[in-house]
Amino acid sequence: MNLPTEIFDDVIVVHTPDELGADQKEALEGYVSALERRNVVFDLDATETIDSQGLESLLSVQDKLRDAGGEAKIATTNAANRKIFELTRLDQQLEVFDSVVEAVKSFQ
After folding, report:
1. Which domains does the chain have, with CATH numbers?
2. Could you give the CA distance from residue 101 to residue 74 in angstroms, rounded to a whole number?
3. The pTM is what?
4. What sign has the CA pseudo-torsion 34, 38, 44, 46?
5. How far apart are CA 6 and CA 26, in angstroms?
6. Strand pairing of 11-15 and 5-8?
7. What pLDDT is recorded for position 50?
8. How does DSSP classify residue 48?
């Protein structure tokens, strides 16, 4: 898996694919493990579909990043994605921001 990224000092922004689910779970986890930075913002604006496996992969990646001294945060302006995080209460486990800029700034 090769995803578009942007680097801001010690934070890397990963722009997630259109679908985030079981088919992408292992690839996403492996991709993030190979990154040189441990502070990651997942930009979900282009992601149209997230299933339970996709949510599980975000939590798994967060655990791995925390073990390495980093953190995972979510950025999305997509109302449906935001609602998914609220309904599943994952917004209490993953910080969710309205913009990439806010998420990146939160690391400082």
Report:
1. 5-105 (3.30.750.24)
2. 11
3. 0.93
4. negative
5. 22
6. antiparallel
7. 94
8. -
